[in-house]
Amino acid sequence: MGCTQSKDMPLNAHPTDGVGKARTKGKGRGGRKIVTVPTSPMSTDSNSGGNPNTNPSFSLRRVHIPKEISKISDPGERLQELLDVVNNKQKHGQGGSGSDIDDHVLLWGRIIKICDKYPMAASYVDANTRDTPLHLACRILAKYPFDSMDVNIGGNGGEPYAGPTPLDALRILTRSDPEIAGRVNRKGYIAVHEIIRANSPLHTDESILHQTEAINLLLAADYEASLEYLSRNDVCFDNKTGSGRTSASNSNNNSMKNDGADACTPLYHAVSSLPDDFFTPQGKSSPGPGPTVKFISAIHFPNPQMVSIPNVAATNHDSPLALLYRRFSRQFDTSEQFFPGDNSLPAVTSHRNQFKAAAMNTWKIILALLDPLLDKKKSVSDFYMVHAAVGMDGCPPDLLRYIIETRPEEVRQTNDRGRLPLHVAAAACGDSNADAGLIANNGVRRKATAMATSSDATSYSRYHFKFVIDELLYAYPEACAEKDADNMLPLQLAVESEKAWIGGGTKSMYDVYPDAMGRVEVEEFPRIKSALSFSTNFVEEREAEAEAESESENASGNSNSNGGGNNGKNSIVKEEHYDAIMMVQKPDANLGDVISAMWANEEDGGVQMLGCVAISRMAMQAHANDRSGDLVRAMALTAVTTVVNAMKNHPNEPAVQEKACGALRLLASADNYRDVSFAASGAAASIVAAMQAHVSDAIVQQEACTALCQIIKHGGPDRATVIASVSGFTALQNALGAHPDAAIVQKEACLALDALTSFPDANLPDLPGSQTGPLLEAARQRYPFECQEPANRILARLSP
């Protein structure tokens, strides 16, 4: 049962083998020297969509150009036909007379030549697709990335390439027609969409940087149109695969499906299309940003607020930061993977180092998304990551907690406005992201904010700031008494930003430092006054003081005021004090609200248990209504880590563990989808821990066994290896031994053991027959209908 490698974590992914294999220098046909460089190794696991380097279709070599094209009299039509032929990859030898375009050089050279002689050719628009030459040129660049060191031109003798490049062609197209970069095709997209939409090979660092420069060029050519496009969250990207990646092998100009089923932001699509980036600068002890960081930054910088705007698609309310943190967790988990045998071998250390580099590059992208101006500053010390994260509505709670835990000193540091992170979080609302270092056009900011506050727009909005403020108060409660440069306390800022009393974290700050409410003009904020009237005697004391000082007719006014407050008191009671526990039980509860309530009330076992029940109910409905599994996978993007967090916070609550195991069982089909990992998230380990902590609870054992079986079924030998490494065998044996009279436990334990031992390439310890054999024998004899078949298969695999 030994395992030499993991499906999702290929051991051969190192610079001298597999996907990172270096190409050798040598003589090509006809004595031409082919100048090549080692490629940036990219992961071949299912999370990164495979490695385009190994796909021969990603190559712009000899493309056959029909002779008829040269006879077209209209320069614009001739240019469009030339680009269309290359885009559709009519290779040499497919029939017809004509000439060949060798590599990028003659292609981009011909574009430049035509536009130099006939500038109006750049303004040509295809009658059917409404594509301009710029659309097609960008599409070709995305499909066949340019690398000056890999240009195969006879006679270059290994000298640096100095011929025409795609950027030269794009420059002359935009110069020939200054409005071309803002023209939309029939699908409603400008040319920059063609570079972002393709899952381009990105097979060398230079090709990534070349595409980054192309994006910057197009943004400069028509900034307003580009900004409008990058500010959308309803852009449709074609050819989505089950892993959430774009299939670049079928990305012709007629393949886009504008059905809105997977509409998202351009930023999210760019992030989801990136493979693992193993870039590590040579000769630097502190690596700078890799090419993928610059690529994402180019898309993000024009409108930084889009980082927290979720996608509009009904099946995908994910966000770029959430996706990146899942990827970071997976990569970091992979970098610590152990293999059988000697783990000091060069292949093993290379594998680990590559994924450490990938994790660091992903982290640098997260840094760039939190602060777009980071690269423009003198040093990283000019940027406080905690301030940026807490001021953002939409920062994933697990990422936020990781940032605060790894940067505890920043919780006590002030920014240029004298504000601690607690001030920033208290003041944050709608358009108040200035403290987080965000910049955006005012019109675009309002548009993005409107999208963010629409129905079901964010996954964490309802209770998000309660979670944020609670985390900050736990790290530094004294912050409640500190004033910013404007002499404002955090509680004052929270009230002025109209934070909810409980859901917005206002009550949390009041409980820590109630004296701060003395600086608030309560009469100006009816909801806060009403909440205070219900939960404290603050309002009565304030009014009594005013009455003693003024000797006015405050007695009747006081009564009227209290009466007015009572009009909203009942709603406050229902909405604030009991909202979380009541909301998660509603049949029509929104997943985003359930998720945010669970994170913000993680100490409440009732909310956690009922939240897991709600997630299970939604998952069952999704399975019943959507056979494709898209709805369940979309749920898992936020639900898996939430359920695991509930299990970790309530290890001694069998009801929480039982319902959590049931929820994870229903979400197991999403493993490996868009970097959802039942290993890196701790889901598999938490289930085994539940079994070990509640051996005598038959229901927990049943749900846990079923969940493990589903995880192994969908995750394959990798997940079997992970479960075995966290004492999964022992937990399943204990379930068999502790519940001999429970047929359902015996059945589910046998099925889980059967699945666990069914992969010969999994890295499993020997399963001794002397311990497990008697338990299996008893199970199949006592419950032959339920247990005989799986028990027979397991017994055949047992070691002596």
Note down, in words, how this protein is organized.
Mean pLDDT is 78; it is low at 1-62, 90-103, 152-157, 239-259, 377-381, 430-460 and 552-577. The chain has a two-stranded antiparallel ribbon. The protein is built from 32 helices and 4 strands. The protein is mainly alpha-helical and 800 residues long. The longest helix has 28 residues, at 698-725. Among the domains are: 29-46 and 58-376, no CATH class; 591-797, Leucine-rich Repeat Variant, CATH 1.25.10.10. The two termini are 14 Å apart. The chain has helices spanning 75-87, 103-117, 133-143, 166-176, 192-197, 205-221, 223-230, 266-273, 291-300, 320-335, 346-370, 385-390, 397-406, 421-427, 442-452, 464-475, 490-496, 506-512, 526-535, 538-550, 554-577, 579-583, 591-600, 605-625, 630-649, 654-667, 683-693, 698-725, 728-738, 743-756, 769-782, 784-797; strands at residues 26-27, 33-34, 62-66, 98-102.
Task: List the topology elements.
Layout: E1 26-27, E2 33-34, E3 62-66, H1 75-87, E4 98-102, H2 103-117, H3 133-143, H4 166-176, H5 192-197, H6 205-221, H7 223-230, H8 266-273, H9 291-300, H10 320-335, H11 346-370, H12 385-390, H13 397-406, H14 421-427, H15 442-452, H16 464-475, H17 490-496, H18 506-512, H19 526-535, H20 538-550, H21 554-577, H22 579-583, H23 591-600, H24 605-625, H25 630-649, H26 654-667, H27 683-693, H28 698-725, H29 728-738, H30 743-756, H31 769-782, H32 784-797
Helix pairs in contact: 1-2, 1-3, 2-4, 3-4, 4-6, 6-7, 6-9, 9-11, 10-11, 13-16, 14-16, 14-17, 16-18, 16-23, 19-21, 23-24, 23-25, 24-25, 24-26, 25-26, 25-27, 26-28, 27-28, 27-29, 28-29, 28-30, 29-30, 30-32, 31-32
